[in-house]
User: What shape does this take?
Amino acid sequence: MNDESLLLSGWIQVKRYGPSALAALVMYVGIDQVLDVLQSALRSWIVVLVNLVIRQGFPARMPLVDRGTMPWTFSAKTLAAGVIVVVVGMFIGLWVQARSQRQTAP
Assistant: This one.
């Protein structure tokens, strides 16, 4: 095989699988963003719960340092942006599937 045929076959594979890989990447980034926001909120609530248990059971002990949480509006905006990214990834995936079904139909 010469270089031109390798380049041509590579370009065909990129055109065939590139949009699918892009859809998977976009959905992965969105899911990662959503989980990051949920993890931050969960960590904050765990610290509050542990402090409540320490205050109730051991009043002479110092509670854990609560550094404060991010404002809920920031978390909500970040969560919404992550959900939007996931939805865009799903639309790209649906477009790729529709395109592949249209190309294989006789």
DSSP finds two helices and no strands in the chain.
